[in-house]
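Working notes for the structural subgroup meeting. M.R. asked for a predicted model of this chain before we commit to crystallization trials. I am recording the input and output together here so anyone reviewing the notebook later can reproduce the run.

Input as submitted:
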Amino acid sequence: MQRRDPFTFFIIQHSHIDIGYTERQEVITEYQTQFVEQAVELALSPEQLSRDDNAKFKFMLEGFWAVEKYLSKTGSSGRAKLVEALKSGNIELTAFYLHLTELLDEGHLRDTLKPALEFATEEGIPLVSAMSCDVNGFSWGMVDALYDAGVKYLSTNINTHHGGCPFGKPNVPFYWESPQGNRILVWQGLTYHKANLLGIIPGYNMVGNPYIPGLSVEDTHRYVDVQDMEYAEKSLFPLAEGLRNDGYEYEFIPIMGSGLYTDNSPPTDSYCELIRQWNDKHGDQIELRTATLAEYFAYLESAVPDIPVYRGDWNDWWTDGVISTALETSLFRNAQRTKRVAERFDPERKYVTEEEWKSVTSALVLYAEHTWGHSASLHRPYDFRVQQLLLRKTKYAVEADELSCIALDKVLAGKGQGDFTARRTFTYKVMNPSIETRMSLAYLSLDYWESPIFEDTIRVVDLQGRQYPYVRVNHSLRGQELCIQLQMEPLEEIELKLEFLTVTDESHKAEVKSVIGEAKGTGCFENDLLRVEWDDKKGVHTLIHKPSEKSLLVDGASGLGAPLYQLFEGVNRWDPAGFGYKARMIPKGEVFNGQIKRITNTGSNYFYETWEFEYDVRGAHAYAFEIKFYRTGSRFDLSVRLNKENILDPEGMYTSFPFQTEQGIWYLDKAGAAIRPCIDQLPNACGDYYSVQSGASLVGNDLGISITTLDAPMVHIGKLRLWDYTEQIEPTGPLYSWLTNNKWDTNFKASCGGFYEFRYTIDVNQAYTDSTKAIRACQENSYDFLAIRK
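Returned structure, recorded in token form:
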């Protein structure tokens, strides 16, 4: 009988970081600081000198956030000990700061890698690995971000609870190639805590079924006090044989473990002696090795010569949870957008310090971190501690928005915004935050106590004396504005002033007479490029691009902007979750379409007119959207106003964008890359829904449509797919903006009741047959003109 080499388990210890979930966020901060300190002590302990290489204590610093907290507490002496432990090879630093949703844009995503990289560079420590646990994916731009930081390896330990993994199975190595052709080596592995379940970590640990696809270990799933090899002997031999029989290709596998079977776990060196004893007794059949990721990947590269290469986005199943707190997420998106505007007008950091910018980024990152709330947030939503964690999560979004607005205020003051005085001058500066030439509206503010000036004749002029037609509008919450239209170059600034005339001059007037009020039957708006039609049965049912004579709405679909509500009444959220690769029991849901109850012409002037469409729809106390149609151009804006009912059954609210173009394909703006769903994507990654940055563009043969979504990041393509677990779709058909959901059974918010506004810009153009131009339009339509009063 031919002797077979021993099957090798690489035991990689770490503490999974959840900021919240198991405790209050500030408590977790303290815990994780303690864990780094404990790991350093264990790595440098005298016992390490007598342990063989396979049985030394080794530890992965899973996220640099914990290291940062440790360094801020322990100072230079703690830093010196940490550096010593890192240089010993017993602890490895990884590149990721935290585990993130897909909310951050590419720039902020790259910012999260800087702290670890700067520390490693300063201390002369290798930084070659990134470690991800729990989350189900990353935007495609992550490859280039890691590659540019010098990171060679990415280890993922996907938790398939409400999600899944590429290739339909774990334990797959591959080179992940970026759009630019850069590559990093990925091990797409088992969920963490496997070493605990297999009885390799002594102490109070869960043992039993390790949740490995196609395999099971006969034992009850329970906590025990593991003191010796008994449980490991019952689990490791059938596991190794089961992997071989199940077609697993390799004679080695990495297994993650923690000091305890819990997230936010302290480290332990108790496994060192167990591993020594195991190898002495069973090492000829199964070998256990403690390892860092760098050590494991070096072994992987040497043992597997032909690792396949894959290109595409790794769409994250889990980012859908961010719209369980839709209002907070809209604040986050406003903060990220506001910060970008401020940075564009302050490229040399003249008005805002680097530390102030970092404070904004820190708040953004903490909100984008994947945890959200307590593990009991769904089954005990009323609990005070559950509310504590959710409100602390809210605080990150509020802080990000507040700090970004303060930064912008400082930039605008530097650009000439005047003080608030009892008698202000009527001089203004209009600024274009876009890096594109744009025709758009600017709003010159007037306070409500200044209304007597309208008794005089006013002209709006620039410094060269050019006059601009204006209309009076109520665009802000207080006072009125003078609305003007401008053509502006990228980042251009134009100074304007009001002139008060003593003689009658009608040239300033730009009013259009129109009947304002409720409309019955059919309606229509038309300009030189678009024709839009609606009625009180189907809503907005026709959108014609006049130059091409193309119809842009799908016949028979829900009307543009119409609500759809999906409800899974009485469903147990756990059934479809598929925790640990369990079979999913997909529930039956019902979709309710909204019914129009009122259409109203809410405004009309020289530059635009607005129409409000009110709907009755299940799941909402009120749903209405307002469309602003511009007199010129092919852009229009849509704003959804929602008063959502407080419902505890799993549910989702959507807005319909039933666009079509000839052979149109959707491109989604994601961090670092625009992707076509299920085309530019890893095999078997999530096809149910997607998180976008600025929005999406439908790119066709003869024209394209871009949708900028300011507040709601989640979309479904083609049809509603909540709990479908779709891994392959056609990137065509209607787009549905996913407004709210409460489908999760842990850590996300239990209900979505409340008042919301979700804003969109739709832009139709024959130039958008080029996907790059279409996505750029989608991005730049995020930035309206700013007007400051001097």
